[in-house]
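Deliverable D5.2: sample structural annotation.
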Amino acid sequence: MQITVEETDKHVVRLTVEVPPEEFERDLDRAYRKVAGQVKIPGFRKGKVPKKIIDARVGREHVLEEFIKDSLPAYYVRALHEQELAPIADPEIDLDRLEDGQPLRFTATVEVRPRLTLAPEQYRGLEVEAPSTEPRELEIDEYVDHLRERFAELEVVSRPAQKGDYVLADVRASVHGQEVPEASRIGFLTEVGSEEIVPELDRELEGKRKGDILKFNATLPERFGEKSGTEVTFQVLVKEVKSKKLPAADDEFARTASEFDTLEELREDVRSKLRTLKEAESHAIIRDLLLNKVIEEVDAELPERMVDEETDRRVESANERAEQAGTTLEAVLESQGWDELRFRSDARAHAVRGLKADLVLEAVARQEGIQVTAEDLDREIRGLAEATGRDPKEVRRILERSRQVTSLAGDIIRSKALDLLVESAEVMREGAPATQEPDPSVSQEDKT
């Protein structure tokens, strides 16, 4: 099959495809056999009607329609694959020539995904500055204090309630004298500032003592379901004010809260866990910094159609997540002080960044000859199976039926390309010289 490609507009190409006579005639014979199996002509068995009879009784035009419907799309897809083109819209196909003994010729005009070309110096050996992975003493103190909070005891105090104190109270909610059970609590123990019922309750509790009686109006929030939006009257009796008494940070606490005998051993364990966490976070930051650095240096003009479709996909994904959480996207935006226009603008900006990132990584993969192996696909499918609690064979069947294997392979290629950026980068860390970032997927045993 002979193919020529001509760029007719920005991101638009016209493919001129010529199919050799012997190939398209073979496919034309297949169209005749298909028609022969569909018609009933006296004197001939179904599927055994000669071509001349079909031409005379059914019409060659009908056969050619079947041929064009079945074979032309296949030729078009082959041409795209051979030229490594990714369409982002349906093509306009024009049949130029269809004659016996002559090559079949057609043109296809289509908008395609941009392709970037990068030189190794544009993405290899890049320098980035990453945060230190060594935990600070303050971070260890905060972790230990959080652990002390979990083992804190409540003790009654005579002073007024403060934020973070606990108040034991009887809370009665009513509308025109009729109690609202959903918002009423008897013997209710709440942390001041937690806003378990309504924010107004927490504000009213601050500065109050045992025996104080509060009365105020408030509107019930969305979590009250059918009652949400209802303005109710609250009457509250403060019965006790309690403060948290944290255990001393000493060896006894370490033995109570962990498997360690001393506070120093506990702190070293916390240090190790925080270091592991910060190393993972740092690796993610480095990947993002490197990718941003390449994107900033590349001029990648994106087709509007491509950006619009990706923006729509992100908005629809946000809608689905909101529905799964039992709410609406409008309600989520309102709670964050956003409107739909601002959200869509933000989604579009993220869509542009995401598409540019994909194009950059695809260019790196082509330049470096990065491929997806069967082992790569098997590993990803096993990971998906474990995450969803399904059998790997079932996951593979689902991916194949929904034609998502190609998409998964693309994700793997882009991930490998980003790994290459990281492996070749010069990473500057706080208080340390530049070093080559290690690949976290490679163990020390693999290196020896």
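Annotation notes: The chain has a mean pLDDT of 89. The chain is about 50% helix and 20% strand.
The annotation will be released with the project's public dataset once the embargo ends.
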